[in-house]
Amino acid sequence: MTATIREILHNNPGEFDPRKYLGPARDELKKMYIHKNTNVLGSANQA
Question: What is the pTM of this model?
Fold first, then answer.
């Protein structure tokens, strides 16, 4: 999540609105959780 925030702040240094960078960061976290549950833990559709 912090990597996405740093990337957005780096690309737009004059803009510091949490509502704009928390959305993409949250989406990246969702992708990571889905990957971990299906590929790493092997609990897809078994929770």
Answer: 0.48
